[in-house]
Design goal:
Layout: H1 3-13, E1 22-26, H2 31-47, E2 50-57, H3 64-77, E3 82-86, H4 89-96, H5 100-119, E4 123-125, H6 130-143, H7 147-150, E5 156-158, E6 174-176, H8 184-193, H9 210-225, H10 229-258, E7 259-262, E8 267-270, H11 271-275, H12 279-293, H13 302-314, E9 320-323, E10 327-331, E11 335-340, E12 358-359, E13 364-367, E14 374-380, H14 387-392, E15 396-399, E16 408-410, E17 417-418, E18 428-429, H15 430-436, E19 449-452, E20 455-459, E21 477-483
Parallel strand pairs: 1-2, 1-4, 2-3, 4-6
Antiparallel strand pairs: 5-6, 7-8, 8-11, 9-10, 10-11, 12-16, 13-14, 14-21, 15-21, 16-19, 17-18, 19-20
Length: 487
């Protein structure tokens, strides 16, 4: 294999390079990272990029300091800037109750993120090769995974969520893997042919690490059944990645109709829209909701998702299902709420919290909760264009001359009654209305009411009153529109 040509083909096919930019290259000193750095040095002129070497001393091996010195010297010899960091990973693993492998991985990506930010690099290149991809797919398969896991590692990926550093997930920083189509044997052959002398990490031979057992024990057994198992698994990962991308695109199309509200504390889905989805999209919707609330969660097991999915379809109202990272799925009358476990809090958007009583300015706008929905009020001399659409979207138009003075917003009080539009002037208690409208109990004290000295004009987002309903003699319209918060 022509390694240089293969890496260039991968870069071009997946748009890995941003011309006229800086690229941080993670270099441990081993064969993979040494091959990666050497190849990128040969290609940097083609893509007009500047390279910056980054090396983290995890403090786990006696040779770690010598490895760091080797990388720093190599970078100097090749005329490349270099940043070397040091982390007490063993202490971090103990404090955070993680395995050494996981703690080292998180520390490494945090370090690389800091270097990238410091030098203004939009991407970091790491040296994962085709055999690493095969091992990753097998690890996910043995653990139990869906398409997201079985597709393996991406050649171009969003920055890992659990290593978020000052909102790096929103900064556009990406992780690229230019060697992902190059087998380990070809990497080692390239290193030898170029006269490079890599550092050797003896921990790669230790069978106590899960990945090493897959590499040295499981894959050789599988090769006895099919000598081309590595190629087959690598190709399967690419095919499943395409299927995963298609499902994500399909989910993005239906998401606006599916989601009732979403925010940092809860994601609320419409039950009817959820049930209409294919099972694969139902699972995808639950995974997306969990990911929005717990960006650092790496592994969401199939059994958690499937139990929640089936509960969403079949369980009675009020049922809850446990999800990882302290989340639950709660089945409501007409909605599914994914939220932190514990006493239910008002859901963002679906519940429009107002707190203390507040005046409504006309014309004007009022935020119903910090960072939440906004109620806009405007006056019109005639029925506004698009008034029907506004009504269908949850807004209302009232007779401006009949609403009365002293318009204000408040929440319900004991004994509140109103005259729902369409009941021929008969009154109903607000409590009974909310029960009949299937508004969840935990949310009823947070639904705002629009009132004046004439009484309750509108249960916001729900039913208006007969008091100020427009008619043939209406001369001015007070139009109220709910504006959804920006997610």
């Amino acid at each position: 294999m022509d390694v240089l040509a293969q890496v260039r083909a991968t870069i071009d096919a997946h748009n890995l390079m941003q011309p006229e930019s800086c690229l941080v290259v993670a270099v441990s000193g081993g064969p993979d990272s040494l091959c990666l750095l050497h190849v990128l040095c040969r290609l940097r002129g083609c893509y007009r990029v500047q390279l910056h070497v980054a090396h983290l001393d995890h403090g786990l091996r006696a040779e770690a300091a010598a490895d760091a010195a080797y990388v720093a010297t190599l970078a100097e010899q090749w005329g490349l800037p270099c940043t070397v960091g040091h982390e007490a990973v063993r202490d971090e693993a103990r404090a955070e109750r993680r395995s050494l492998e996981e703690a080292a991985r998180i520390a490494r990506y945090r370090f690389l993120a800091r270097v990238a930010r410091a030098v203004g690099a939009p991407a970091v290149a790491v040296g994962h090769n085709a055999d690493d991809q095969v091992e990753t797919v097998l690890m996910h398969c043995l653990r139990g995974a869906g398409l997201a896991g079985l597709r393996g590692m991406e050649r171009r990926a969003r920055w890992p969520g659990e290593t978020d550093f000052q909102n790096l997930k929103d900064s556009g920083l990406t992780l690229i893997r230019p060697l992902l189509d190059v087998p380990r044997a070809e990497v080692e052959a390239y290193v030898q042919a170029q006269g490079l002398i890599p550092r050797l990490d003896v921990t790669n031979l230790e069978r106590t690490f899960y990945r090493n057992r897959i590499r040295h024990e499981l894959i050789p057994v599988l090769e006895s059944y099919n000598p081309r198992i590595r190629e087959l698994l690598h190709r399967s990962a690419d095919l499943l990645a395409d299927d995963y991308d298609y499902l994500q695109q399909s989910l993005a199309v239906c998401w606006p109709e599916l989601v009732l509200a979403e925010g940092p504390q809860a994601v609320v889905l419409r039950s009817t829209a959820f049930r209409a989805l294919a099972p694969s999209l139902q699972r995808g919707a639950l995974r997306r909701a969990v990911a929005q609330l717990r960006r650092s969660l790496r592994d969401l097991s199939w059994i958690h998702v499937e139990q929640a999915r089936r509960g969403a379809l079949d369980a009675p109202t009020g049922s809850t299902f446990t999800l990882p990272a302290g989340l639950v799925l709660e089945v409501g009358y007409d909605r599914l709420t994914i939220r932190p476990a514990g006493p239910p809090a008002p859901t963002p958007g679906a519940i429009l919290m107002v707190g203390p009583e507040r005046p409504l300015l006309v014309p004007g706008a009022i935020e119903l909760a910090p960072g939440g929905w906004v109620l806009e009020a405007s006056l019109h001399e005639k029925w506004p264009a698009g008034g029907e659409a506004e009504a269908a979207a949850g807004g209302v138009c009232l007779d401006a001359d009949r609403v009365g003075a002293d318009l204000r917003l408040r929440t319900r009080r004991p004994g509140d009654r109103f005259q729902p539009l369409g009941l021929a002037g008969h009154s109903q208690s607000v409590k009974d209305y909310m029960i009949n409208a299937k508004i969840p109990r935990a949310e009823r004290d947070h639904v705002p009411l629009l009132v004046s000295e004439r009484g309750i004009l509108w249960i916001v987002g729900h039913r208006t009153s007969e008091i100020a309903a427009p008619g043939p003699e209406t001369r001015r319209y007070l139009c109220l529109r709910l504006v959804r918060p920006v997610a």
